């Protein structure tokens, strides 16, 4: 299944998501643009350089079509071509789009010094995380200074339901939406809830709403501990989560609750409008 097909199945909680807009209007939808975006998205799944043949294979396009899209993206400056291997990779021009995303979200930009301060104080990995459909995505990240720090580079994605950030961001979501997302989880992701029933899983989100935070373990390996607190807008709606990821060899859940959570809550209050 290609990236565009995966994303079309995400049930988003955001107002402007494709799912909220109903069926695709064939009179307005530009299929060639969708294919071009599919080429760019491919590099998120494959960090190495890709040949025309690789791109055709992974997107399901014919080689001739893949070549035309790659040529166009290269001419526009969004793909670079390695002179020796003749393979392609994303160009630095794409970073301009990332800058534009951040520029239109000043609350996120203003929070960066808070993340830096939090990382200095705790020496742990600190992230600004937002909801994107059925997933959460790391948009800002300050790596921890420990050798065994959790690595969460910007752009990292995780299933929302099983992550502490997703649990606080979905803590006000309707029950029907949560159940739909739960039913859509792949078996290996559903296994993270263990033997919990559907009602017991829903109680995790109610607890996150009541507590104003969420803890999870084992999302980054058997030693992982993650804690998240929501950042809200002027109406009190969660728009992001501040997350600290550590390891149990340094902090048990009880220790993280005592030593990390208060700092995280303070930073989230300052980041909220």
Automatic annotation (TrEMBL):
InterPro entries named in the record: GAF-like_dom_sf, HTH_MetabolicPath_Reg, Tscrpt_reg_IclR_C, Tscrpt_reg_IclR_N, WH-like_DNA-bd_sf, WH_DNA-bd_sf
Domain HTH iclR-type: 30-92
Transmembrane domains' residue ranges: none
Transcription among keywords: yes
Sequence ranges assigned to domain IclR-ED in this UniProt record: 93-273
Residue ranges that the Swiss-Prot or TrEMBL entry lists as coiled coil: none
A Pfam match: HTH_IclR
GO molecular function, one term: DNA-binding transcription factor activity
Disordered as annotated region, ranges: 1-26
SMART domains assigned: HTH_ICLR
Protein keywords: DNA-binding, Transcription, Transcription regulation
Descriptive protein name: Transcriptional regulator, IclR family
Organism: Variovorax paradoxus B4
């Amino acid at each position: 299944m290609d990236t565009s097909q995966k994303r079309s199945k995400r049930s988003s909680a955001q107002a402007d998501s494709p799912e909220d807009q109903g069926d695709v209007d064939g009179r307005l939808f530009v299929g060639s643009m969708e294919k071009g975006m599919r080429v760019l998205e491919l590099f998120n799944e494959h960090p190495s350089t890709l040949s025309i043949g690789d791109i055709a294979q992974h997107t399901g396009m014919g080689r001739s079509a893949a070549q035309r899209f790659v040529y166009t993206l290269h001419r526009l400056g969004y793909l670079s071509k390695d002179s020796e291997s003749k393979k392609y990779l994303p160009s630095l021009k794409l970073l301009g789009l990332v800058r534009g995303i951040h520029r239109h979200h000043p609350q996120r930009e203003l929070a960066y010094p808070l993340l830096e301060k939090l990382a200095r104080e705790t020496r742990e990995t600190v992230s600004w995380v937002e909801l994107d459909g059925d997933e959460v995505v790391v948009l800002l990240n300050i790596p921890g200074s420990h050798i065994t720090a959790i690595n969460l580079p910007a752009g990292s994605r995780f299933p929302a339901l099983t992550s502490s950030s997703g649990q606080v961001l979905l803590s006000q979501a309707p029950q029907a939406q949560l159940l739909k997302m739960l039913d859509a989880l792949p078996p290996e992701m559903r296994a993270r809830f263990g033997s919990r029933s559907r009602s017991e899983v829903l109680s995790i989100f109610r607890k996150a709403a009541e507590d104003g935070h969420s803890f999870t373990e084992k999302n980054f390996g058997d030693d992982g501990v993650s804690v998240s607190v929501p950042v809200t807008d002027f109406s009190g709606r969660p728009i992001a989560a501040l997350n600290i990821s550590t390891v149990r060899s340094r902090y048990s859940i009880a220790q993280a609750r005592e030593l990390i959570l208060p700092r995280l809550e303070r930073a989230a209050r300052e980041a909220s409008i």
